[in-house]
Amino acid sequence: MLENRLDSRNTRQNAAPIGLFDSGVGGLTVLRELYRQLPYESVIYFGDTARLPYGTKAPAQILQYVREILTWMEQQGTKMVIMACNTSSALALEAVRSEFSLPVLGLILPGARAAVQQGRRIGVIATPATAASHAYRHAILEADGTAQVWEVGCPEFVPLIESDRLHDPYTVAIAQSYLEPLIQQQIDTLVYGCTHYPYLAPILRQLLPTSVTLVDPAVSVIAAAAQELDLLALKNLRPPVPTRFCVSGSPRTFSQLAAPWLGCTPIVENVIPAHAMAQPAALESAD
Protein backbone atom coordinates (compact mmCIF):
# COMPACT_ATOMS: atom_id res chain seq x y z
CA MET A 1 0.00 0.00 0.00
CA LEU A 2 2.89 2.36 0.86
CA GLU A 3 4.48 1.40 -2.44
CA ASN A 4 1.27 2.34 -4.29
CA ARG A 5 1.20 5.74 -2.56
CA LEU A 6 4.85 6.35 -3.46
CA ASP A 7 4.19 5.36 -7.08
CA SER A 8 1.23 7.72 -7.18
CA ARG A 9 3.29 10.58 -5.73
CA ASN A 10 6.12 9.93 -8.21
CA THR A 11 3.62 9.89 -11.08
CA ARG A 12 2.23 13.27 -9.97
CA GLN A 13 5.75 14.72 -9.71
CA ASN A 14 6.65 13.46 -13.17
CA ALA A 15 3.43 14.85 -14.64
CA ALA A 16 4.00 18.30 -13.06
CA PRO A 17 4.60 21.04 -15.65
CA ILE A 18 7.84 22.72 -16.59
CA GLY A 19 7.74 26.48 -16.08
CA LEU A 20 9.14 28.64 -18.84
CA PHE A 21 9.26 32.44 -18.79
CA ASP A 22 10.40 35.44 -20.78
CA SER A 23 9.61 39.14 -20.99
CA GLY A 24 7.34 38.50 -23.99
CA VAL A 25 7.00 36.31 -27.08
CA GLY A 26 10.75 35.62 -27.37
CA GLY A 27 10.49 32.61 -25.10
CA LEU A 28 8.21 30.94 -27.62
CA THR A 29 11.35 30.09 -29.60
CA VAL A 30 12.44 28.05 -26.56
CA LEU A 31 8.94 26.61 -26.11
CA ARG A 32 8.92 25.36 -29.68
CA GLU A 33 12.24 23.63 -29.08
CA LEU A 34 10.83 22.10 -25.88
CA TYR A 35 7.90 20.71 -27.87
CA ARG A 36 10.40 19.14 -30.27
CA GLN A 37 12.78 17.60 -27.75
CA LEU A 38 10.41 16.89 -24.83
CA PRO A 39 7.02 16.20 -26.42
CA TYR A 40 5.55 14.54 -23.31
CA GLU A 41 6.17 17.47 -20.95
CA SER A 42 3.40 19.86 -19.90
CA VAL A 43 4.32 23.56 -19.74
CA ILE A 44 3.28 26.77 -18.01
CA TYR A 45 4.49 29.73 -20.07
CA PHE A 46 4.68 33.19 -18.53
CA GLY A 47 5.39 36.34 -20.55
CA ASP A 48 6.05 39.43 -18.43
CA THR A 49 4.69 41.67 -21.17
CA ALA A 50 3.64 44.48 -18.83
CA ARG A 51 7.29 45.08 -17.95
CA LEU A 52 9.13 44.41 -21.20
CA PRO A 53 11.73 45.03 -22.46
CA TYR A 54 13.94 43.57 -19.75
CA GLY A 55 17.14 44.43 -21.61
CA THR A 56 17.08 48.12 -20.73
CA LYS A 57 16.23 47.63 -17.03
CA ALA A 58 18.63 47.85 -14.07
CA PRO A 59 20.03 44.54 -12.74
CA ALA A 60 18.22 45.02 -9.39
CA GLN A 61 14.89 45.32 -11.20
CA ILE A 62 15.52 42.17 -13.22
CA LEU A 63 16.40 40.26 -10.06
CA GLN A 64 13.18 41.42 -8.40
CA TYR A 65 11.10 40.39 -11.42
CA VAL A 66 12.72 36.95 -11.53
CA ARG A 67 12.14 36.33 -7.83
CA GLU A 68 8.46 37.22 -8.23
CA ILE A 69 8.04 34.98 -11.27
CA LEU A 70 9.82 32.02 -9.67
CA THR A 71 7.70 32.38 -6.54
CA TRP A 72 4.60 32.26 -8.71
CA MET A 73 5.95 29.30 -10.68
CA GLU A 74 6.54 27.41 -7.43
CA GLN A 75 2.95 28.11 -6.41
CA GLN A 76 1.76 26.65 -9.72
CA GLY A 77 3.48 23.33 -8.88
CA THR A 78 6.17 23.35 -11.56
CA LYS A 79 8.93 20.72 -11.28
CA MET A 80 11.56 22.83 -13.11
CA VAL A 81 11.83 26.36 -14.49
CA ILE A 82 13.65 27.40 -17.64
CA MET A 83 14.59 31.06 -17.95
CA ALA A 84 13.74 31.57 -21.62
CA CYS A 85 15.30 35.01 -21.30
CA ASN A 86 19.00 35.75 -21.69
CA THR A 87 18.80 38.96 -19.67
CA SER A 88 17.39 37.08 -16.67
CA SER A 89 19.91 34.30 -17.16
CA ALA A 90 22.79 36.78 -17.25
CA LEU A 91 21.72 38.95 -14.31
CA ALA A 92 19.71 36.77 -11.94
CA LEU A 93 20.34 33.04 -12.40
CA GLU A 94 23.18 32.60 -9.94
CA ALA A 95 21.44 34.69 -7.27
CA VAL A 96 18.12 32.82 -7.37
CA ARG A 97 19.36 29.26 -7.75
CA SER A 98 20.18 29.06 -4.04
CA GLU A 99 16.86 30.67 -3.05
CA PHE A 100 14.50 28.16 -4.68
CA SER A 101 14.24 24.42 -4.23
CA LEU A 102 13.23 23.58 -7.80
CA PRO A 103 15.83 23.30 -10.61
CA VAL A 104 16.28 26.56 -12.53
CA LEU A 105 18.06 26.53 -15.90
CA GLY A 106 19.42 29.47 -17.90
CA LEU A 107 20.54 30.00 -21.49
CA ILE A 108 24.03 31.45 -21.20
CA LEU A 109 26.20 28.43 -20.43
CA PRO A 110 24.47 26.03 -22.88
CA GLY A 111 24.63 28.73 -25.57
CA ALA A 112 28.30 29.41 -24.94
CA ARG A 113 29.21 25.72 -25.16
CA ALA A 114 27.30 25.39 -28.42
CA ALA A 115 29.08 28.45 -29.84
CA VAL A 116 32.62 27.16 -29.28
CA GLN A 117 31.67 23.93 -31.02
CA GLN A 118 31.02 25.99 -34.16
CA GLY A 119 33.83 28.54 -34.33
CA ARG A 120 36.48 30.69 -32.66
CA ARG A 121 35.53 34.19 -33.82
CA ILE A 122 32.21 34.57 -32.07
CA GLY A 123 29.77 37.46 -32.20
CA VAL A 124 26.95 37.85 -29.71
CA ILE A 125 23.92 40.04 -30.31
CA ALA A 126 21.99 40.67 -27.11
CA THR A 127 19.94 43.13 -25.11
CA PRO A 128 21.97 46.02 -23.66
CA ALA A 129 21.77 44.51 -20.16
CA THR A 130 23.04 41.11 -21.31
CA ALA A 131 25.81 42.66 -23.41
CA ALA A 132 26.89 44.93 -20.54
CA SER A 133 27.07 41.96 -18.16
CA HIS A 134 29.59 40.21 -20.49
CA ALA A 135 27.97 36.95 -19.38
CA TYR A 136 28.43 35.37 -22.81
CA ARG A 137 32.03 36.52 -23.08
CA HIS A 138 32.89 34.98 -19.71
CA ALA A 139 31.04 31.73 -20.46
CA ILE A 140 32.55 31.36 -23.94
CA LEU A 141 36.11 31.99 -22.71
CA GLU A 142 35.52 29.56 -19.85
CA ALA A 143 34.50 26.94 -22.41
CA ASP A 144 37.41 27.77 -24.75
CA GLY A 145 40.10 30.25 -23.78
CA THR A 146 41.33 30.52 -27.38
CA ALA A 147 38.04 31.99 -28.65
CA GLN A 148 37.57 35.66 -29.49
CA VAL A 149 34.27 37.27 -28.56
CA TRP A 150 32.54 40.48 -29.65
CA GLU A 151 29.25 41.51 -28.01
CA VAL A 152 26.78 44.06 -29.38
CA GLY A 153 23.84 45.46 -27.45
CA CYS A 154 20.72 45.76 -29.61
CA PRO A 155 18.17 47.91 -27.75
CA GLU A 156 15.67 48.24 -30.61
CA PHE A 157 15.24 44.58 -31.57
CA VAL A 158 12.84 43.46 -28.82
CA PRO A 159 10.45 46.43 -29.15
CA LEU A 160 10.42 46.00 -32.94
CA ILE A 161 9.63 42.28 -32.67
CA GLU A 162 6.98 42.80 -30.00
CA SER A 163 5.42 45.46 -32.26
CA ASP A 164 5.29 42.95 -35.14
CA ARG A 165 7.61 45.03 -37.34
CA LEU A 166 9.70 42.16 -38.72
CA HIS A 167 8.99 43.19 -42.32
CA ASP A 168 9.62 46.90 -41.77
CA PRO A 169 12.58 48.31 -43.78
CA TYR A 170 13.59 50.17 -40.62
CA THR A 171 14.18 46.82 -38.89
CA VAL A 172 16.55 45.77 -41.68
CA ALA A 173 18.43 49.06 -41.39
CA ILE A 174 18.76 48.68 -37.62
CA ALA A 175 19.96 45.08 -38.03
CA GLN A 176 22.58 46.24 -40.51
CA SER A 177 23.90 48.82 -38.03
CA TYR A 178 24.14 46.24 -35.23
CA LEU A 179 25.81 43.60 -37.41
CA GLU A 180 28.31 45.87 -39.16
CA PRO A 181 30.98 45.85 -36.39
CA LEU A 182 30.72 42.05 -36.14
CA ILE A 183 31.04 41.61 -39.90
CA GLN A 184 34.13 43.85 -39.81
CA GLN A 185 35.65 41.50 -37.22
CA GLN A 186 35.08 38.58 -39.64
CA ILE A 187 33.10 36.50 -37.17
CA ASP A 188 32.46 32.87 -38.07
CA THR A 189 29.69 32.32 -35.50
CA LEU A 190 26.80 34.49 -34.28
CA VAL A 191 24.94 33.70 -31.05
CA TYR A 192 21.35 34.76 -30.50
CA GLY A 193 21.87 36.41 -27.11
CA CYS A 194 18.13 37.00 -26.78
CA THR A 195 15.32 34.51 -27.36
CA HIS A 196 13.45 37.06 -29.48
CA TYR A 197 16.20 37.10 -32.10
CA PRO A 198 15.43 33.84 -33.97
CA TYR A 199 12.43 35.74 -35.36
CA LEU A 200 15.02 37.87 -37.17
CA ALA A 201 16.75 34.90 -38.83
CA PRO A 202 15.67 35.76 -42.42
CA ILE A 203 17.01 39.32 -42.00
CA LEU A 204 20.23 38.20 -40.34
CA ARG A 205 20.84 35.58 -43.03
CA GLN A 206 20.32 38.25 -45.70
CA LEU A 207 22.90 40.56 -44.10
CA LEU A 208 25.57 38.13 -42.87
CA PRO A 209 28.18 36.29 -44.96
CA THR A 210 27.00 32.78 -45.78
CA SER A 211 29.98 31.37 -43.87
CA VAL A 212 28.63 32.60 -40.50
CA THR A 213 26.92 29.94 -38.38
CA LEU A 214 23.91 31.03 -36.31
CA VAL A 215 23.69 29.53 -32.82
CA ASP A 216 20.35 29.36 -31.02
CA PRO A 217 20.90 28.62 -27.28
CA ALA A 218 17.31 27.33 -27.07
CA VAL A 219 18.41 24.02 -28.61
CA SER A 220 21.12 23.54 -26.00
CA VAL A 221 19.14 24.64 -22.94
CA ILE A 222 16.34 22.18 -23.73
CA ALA A 223 18.91 19.42 -24.22
CA ALA A 224 20.29 20.35 -20.77
CA ALA A 225 16.76 20.27 -19.34
CA ALA A 226 16.25 16.78 -20.76
CA GLN A 227 19.47 15.59 -19.08
CA GLU A 228 18.42 17.18 -15.78
CA LEU A 229 15.00 15.48 -15.90
CA ASP A 230 16.72 12.15 -16.54
CA LEU A 231 19.09 12.66 -13.60
CA LEU A 232 16.22 13.56 -11.28
CA ALA A 233 13.97 10.80 -12.67
CA LEU A 234 11.32 13.46 -13.40
CA LYS A 235 10.58 12.86 -17.08
CA ASN A 236 6.91 12.56 -17.90
CA LEU A 237 6.04 9.47 -19.91
CA ARG A 238 2.33 10.18 -20.39
CA PRO A 239 0.60 12.53 -22.81
CA PRO A 240 0.94 16.17 -21.69
CA VAL A 241 -1.87 18.57 -20.90
CA PRO A 242 -2.23 21.67 -23.12
CA THR A 243 0.24 24.46 -22.45
CA ARG A 244 -1.03 27.14 -20.10
CA PHE A 245 -0.15 30.64 -21.34
CA CYS A 246 -0.08 33.54 -18.87
CA VAL A 247 1.00 37.16 -19.34
CA SER A 248 1.21 40.23 -17.13
CA GLY A 249 0.03 42.53 -19.93
CA SER A 250 -2.57 42.17 -22.68
CA PRO A 251 -3.60 38.56 -23.44
CA ARG A 252 -5.03 39.58 -26.79
CA THR A 253 -1.83 41.25 -28.00
CA PHE A 254 0.29 38.27 -26.92
CA SER A 255 -2.12 35.80 -28.52
CA GLN A 256 -2.02 37.64 -31.85
CA LEU A 257 1.78 37.82 -31.86
CA ALA A 258 2.15 34.19 -30.76
CA ALA A 259 -0.26 32.64 -33.26
CA PRO A 260 2.03 32.64 -36.34
CA TRP A 261 4.92 31.18 -34.34
CA LEU A 262 2.84 28.50 -32.60
CA GLY A 263 0.70 27.61 -35.59
CA CYS A 264 -2.46 28.15 -33.53
CA THR A 265 -4.09 30.93 -31.52
CA PRO A 266 -3.44 30.27 -27.83
CA ILE A 267 -5.86 30.97 -24.99
CA VAL A 268 -3.99 33.40 -22.75
CA GLU A 269 -4.62 34.37 -19.11
CA ASN A 270 -3.78 37.69 -17.53
CA VAL A 271 -1.79 37.31 -14.30
CA ILE A 272 -1.20 40.29 -12.00
CA PRO A 273 2.53 41.15 -11.88
CA ALA A 274 4.66 42.09 -8.86
CA HIS A 275 3.79 40.92 -5.35
CA ALA A 276 0.19 40.05 -6.21
CA MET A 277 1.26 37.49 -8.82
CA ALA A 278 0.06 34.61 -6.66
CA GLN A 279 -3.53 35.45 -7.62
CA PRO A 280 -4.79 35.62 -11.20
CA ALA A 281 -6.37 38.87 -12.26
CA ALA A 282 -9.91 39.09 -13.50
CA LEU A 283 -9.35 36.91 -16.53
CA GLU A 284 -9.16 38.77 -19.80
CA SER A 285 -8.74 35.70 -21.97
CA ALA A 286 -7.79 35.87 -25.64
CA ASP A 287 -9.19 33.08 -27.72
UniProtKB/TrEMBL annotation:
The EC number(s) this enzyme carries: 5.1.1.3
UniProt keyword Cytoplasm present: no
Entries under InterPro entries matching the protein: Asp/Glu/hydantoin_racemase, Asp/Glu_race, Asp/Glu_racemase_AS_1, Asp/Glu_racemase_AS_2, Glu_race
Membrane-crossing residue ranges in chain numbering: none
Pathway recorded for this protein: Cell wall biogenesis; peptidoglycan biosynthesis
Catalytic class of the enzyme: isomerase
Record: residues binding substrate: D22, S23, Y54, G55, N86, T87, T195, H196
Catalytic activity from the UniProt record: L-glutamate = D-glutamate
Signal peptide (from-to): none
UniProt xrefs under Pfam families: Asp_Glu_race (PF01177)
GO terms, molecular function: glutamate racemase activity
Keyword Cell wall biogenesis/degradation: yes
Superkingdom of source: Bacteria
Key words of the record: Cell shape, Cell wall biogenesis/degradation, Isomerase, Peptidoglycan synthesis
Active site as annotated: C85 (proton donor/acceptor), C194 (proton donor/acceptor)
GO biological processes: cell wall organization; peptidoglycan biosynthetic process; regulation of cell shape
Role this protein plays: Provides the (R)-glutamate required for cell wall biosynthesis.
Family: Belongs to the aspartate/glutamate racemases family.
PANTHER family associated with the record: GLUTAMATE RACEMASE (PTHR21198:SF2)
Protein known as: Glutamate racemase
Species the sequence originates in: Stenomitos frigidus ULC18
Name of the encoding gene: murI
